[in-house]
Design a protein that fits this description.
Helices cover about 35% and strands about 15% of the residues. The chain is built from eleven helices and eight strands. The chain has a five-stranded mixed β-sheet with strand order 6-5-4-7-8, sandwiched between helices. Strands 1-2-3 form a three-stranded antiparallel β-sheet, with no helix packed on it. The longest helix has 16 residues. It is elongated.
Length: about 325
């Protein structure tokens, strides 16, 4: 166990969450860290508990309202046991390659693929922190775009239906004590942001930078004209025409291209490609795990904590396209 009480190994996880009661107690603490507060009347205090009920329902002693432990969380209306949800969050948050829906179904012993698919998307819906900070306040930021998807044959040269993704990543410098032979680079990747955008126009790219990068930050880009307005908006813009030169790319935008390469490998290797309809959800998962890669068990706690205060899609809204995935 680490100092904050998070399990750091699989055996510790099993000891901390041995049954439904332990999971319910942990989720209750995540929802109400300062003690139960009624969502109906706002009263605080120890609620009445129904020992015989299979689902956890808390009754406010002031107004007698029943409050479901899973209400207002991504677990709402789920009939899946809490222990399975906890194992699912553990698998998604701590395993570097993540989980495909088929792997998820097999490892959790779920009878239906659709259940696994929906659970994963519900967890992804809780992986975006609404009040997240802008990046780049203390470090330079690399910004670039990439295309995701396969080639389209038979529609003419240059025609494709690839998705356009814009990304921004902090470039941090190692402290002298961190430098050693095992670190090939003096710099390393900090926090990452990724977004699916309709195109590479100045409007989309500028909006992305403004919503994700701190005002006044050093922003490094290639020479694409879509970034020309950044200096006027208060950023220290450092553009460079790369002309496809790998040495220039490696010198000017090394971190974002490594992130893009890892993203594409993950999408193809783990998920064998994803549809554009749900691509933003997968970007959110990649960003969530990437930004917490040094602290995987903290990522597990964060996933449950965010999920305890987020809304999630239903199976119908996922397939109909009504659900709008939050952006990381």
């Amino acid at each position: 166990m680490d100092l904050r009480g998070f399990p750091t190994t699989l055996p510790e996880f099993q000891r901390v969450f041995p049954d439904e009661a332990a999971c319910a107690k942990y989720l209750e603490h995540l929802r109400w860290p300062n003690g139960f507060t009624c969502t109906k009347c706002g009263s605080s205090g120890e609620p009445y508990r129904f020992a015989q009920r299979t689902s956890v329902v808390l009754r406010c002693r002031a107004c007698q309202a029943n409050v479901s432990l899973m209400a207002d969380t991504v677990l709402k209306d789920s009939h899946t046991p809490l222990s399975i949800w906890f194992w699912g969050a553990y698998l998604v948050a701590t395993q570097t390659p993540g989980q495909s829906a088929l792997q998820f179904q097999r490892q959790l012993g779920l009878s239906r693929y659709e259940t696994a698919f929906q659970m994963l998307h519900k967890l992804r819906a809780g992986m975006v922190r609404p009040e997240r900070d802008a990046i780049g306040s203390q470090h330079p930021v690399e910004v670039d775009e990439t295309f995701v998807g396969g080639r389209t044959k038979g529609e003419g040269r240059g025609v494709h239906h690839k998705a356009t993704i814009v990304g921004a990543i902090e470039v941090r410098t190692r402290m002298p004590v961190e430098k050693s032979k095992k670190h090939k680079r003096v710099v390393y990747a900090g926090r990452l942001r990724l977004r699916l955008v309709p195109g590479r126009g100045a409007k989309e790219l500028t909006q992305f930078v403004q919503e994700n990068v701190a005002q006044g930050a050093v922003v490094r880009t290639d020479g694409w004209r879509g970034y020309d307005d950044l200096a006027k908006l208060g950023y220290t813009h450092e553009p460079l025409v790369l002309d496809g030169d790998p040495e220039r790319v490696d010198a000017h935008l090394p971190m974002i291209h490594i992130a893009f390469s890892n993203l594409k490998t993950w999408l193809l290797g783990t998920h064998h490609g994803v549809s554009q309809q749900h691509l933003q959800a997968y970007l959110n998962e990649f960003v969530f795990r990437f930004n917490r890669r040094f602290y995987p068990m903290t990522a597990f706690n964060s996933a449950l904590g965010l999920a305890a205060h987020a809304s999630a899609p239903t199976y119908e809204t996922l397939y109909s396209g009504e659900w709008i995935h939050p952006t990381a």
